[in-house]
Write a structure and sequence with these properties.
Blueprint lengths: L1 H4 L7 H14 L8 E8 L2 E8 L14 H14 L4 E6 L5 E8 L7
Antiparallel strand pairs: 1-2, 2-4, 3-4
Length: 110
């Protein structure tokens, strides 16, 4: 909807979430898989959901530093305090769902 197109969302955060899903979930899955990005407004929050059907938690040893999600959480806290959150949960039958919620606001036009 038009309201979602003009909603404020931290720059590069969606890209980080998608990269994370590809790197940790789909990259090691030879048959490939899917990645879905969805946004919705609920209870005056903008909720952005990135879901994949990749390998899931702990399926392969991580070569990363583990800082990606930590950085997202820190940025959310700086921008919105306790009004924002990042949740990571298992997807069924496989994969991961990452959900970011921020206060729903219209982006300022430059």
């Amino acid at each position: 909807t038009e309201g979602l197109r003009t909603a404020a969302f931290p720059p590069m955060m969606l890209q980080s979430m998608v990269e994370n899903a590809i790197k940790h979930g789909l990259e090691g899955k030879p048959e490939g898989g899917y990645l879905r990005v969805r946004a919705e407004v609920a209870h005056s929050k903008l909720r952005v959901i990135v879901a994949d059907d990749g390998l899931g938690f702990g399926a392969k040893p991580s070569t990363g530093t583990g800082l990606g999600l930590t950085n997202i959480r820190e940025r959310l806290k700086l921008l919105h305090g306790d009004q924002a959150s990042l949740k990571i949960e298992p997807n069924q039958p496989s994969g991961v769902i990452a959900i970011i919620e921020v206060p729903y606001q219209l982006a300022r036009s430059e």
